[in-house]
Amino acid sequence: MSAPVGSRLTEAELDQLQQSQHTHYNHYDRPPLPFACLSARGIAMEAVELTGPHRGETFTLYDASGGYGSACLGAGNDLVGRSLQRAVAASGYVTDEIASLERARLLDRLFGAEGRWSDRFPAEDYHVAGRNSGSEGLELALRLVLESRFDIRRLRHRPGREKRDTILAFEGAWHGWTQGLLPLLNRRHYRVGLPGLAPGEDYGVRVEHIPFGDADALDEYVAANADRLLAVVVEPVQGDAGILLPPPGYLRHLARLCADSRAWLVADEVLTFAKTGRWFGMHDEDGPVPTDVTVIGKSLGMGALSTSMVIARRELRARATGTISTSDLRPLTSTVIHDGLGHIENTGLLEHSRRLGSRLTETLRALVQRFPDVYTDSRGLGVMHGVELSGAAAARLDALRTHVLRAGVYVEFMAGAGKRSRGLRYVHPTMRIAPPLITTEAEADEIVERLGEGTRRFQETL
């Protein structure tokens, strides 16, 4: 066990923690991890063992997951605490029907004449909505593109849009688990046994998948389906597929094809937002890659709120009152986003993450070389990296994770892209390294060192 701290819990408290794991819904179809977090500051958690010979012992656990990729400022951040306090004390709780000073400050700072993102999303061309989560944001994005096919007042097809019944997605993609998003996932595990789409019916839609990053497959598909293509939904970096990066120029080429075929380009930046060394992953050496809808989330809530933002072209609208949300940029949410984004910008955390990304690229590649029986590849940028498992390690993923946890690092494992078409290789589950933006280079080095120790212990069991 790494960095033991001691023991300060009673047996009754340990029993309470274990009972809570039994009561809390288990999403993973496996026994819960025998650890609990007692407190946290920055990227360090005080954790406790719940079972076995070390039951009750506490130790320091570094968070290399950033709280499912959401806690970009780490735990216990003073600015976030002050922002929440200010919002609760003074910001009010009005709905979107009444203007809010906090919402106005946020939207002006981002999209106003001198706004941070005004060049990318000028206010005369784009409007913005807020939602509770990335999944809800993607649901709204889909609604907007689906309703673009017909006249909202007369509720019938717009002339010339009758054939637009196809959404293109990518193999290995993850856009959320809600019912409307399941068709975007080409994974039978998530879809079988649940109601699907109804292509061929009035206003029906079909979803098709091609491999991510394959320019030839993209060209062939669009050439054959341009007249039916309604929208393309893409992650700038595929997350759950194993942190798969597109080849240079691919995203810009995709944007051009969408524009030429009059299909909407929807960028799912829920995970990539503020993690690639820039605000947005839809970017290349020529600058921002244009999109029609961009959905951001996770880091947007600074680890304190679950929230998302949908930035869409103004011509994309839905029927009146059909997309009202309790969480549409309420004052408290707007306050936290405003203050958090300002802090990231003022302290140079995006620039820092680019340097940190270069460091992680180097040290994680060395980790793969050190343990070729456990890991096969590493890839990533900024604070978004993946270390792909070997087949043997993937078969014992839970054991690997437990050894890494006991060595003092909390990590997540992505499903991997699995089997892909057109002869592309199988992508096994991948360990995601996505620490908070505030992580220092020394802490990043310590994370990789602890990963190495946990991996060594695991390898001894193979």
Automatic annotation (TrEMBL):
- InterPro entries in the record: Aminotrans_3, Class-III_PLP-dep_AT, PyrdxlP-dep_Trfase, PyrdxlP-dep_Trfase_major, PyrdxlP-dep_Trfase_small
Q: Molecular function terms in GO for this entry? A: transaminase activity
Cofactor(s) needed: pyridoxal 5'-phosphate
| Key words of the record | Aminotransferase, Pyridoxal phosphate, Transferase
Nucleotidyltransferase listed as a keyword: no
SUPFAM superfamilies, sorted: PLP-dependent transferases
Q: Which Pfam families match?
A: Aminotran_3 (PF00202)
**This protein's record includes keyword Transferase:** yes
Q: Which family does it belong to?
A: Belongs to the class-III pyridoxal-phosphate-dependent aminotransferase family.
Q: What is this protein called?
A: Aminotransferase class III-fold pyridoxal phosphate-dependent enzyme
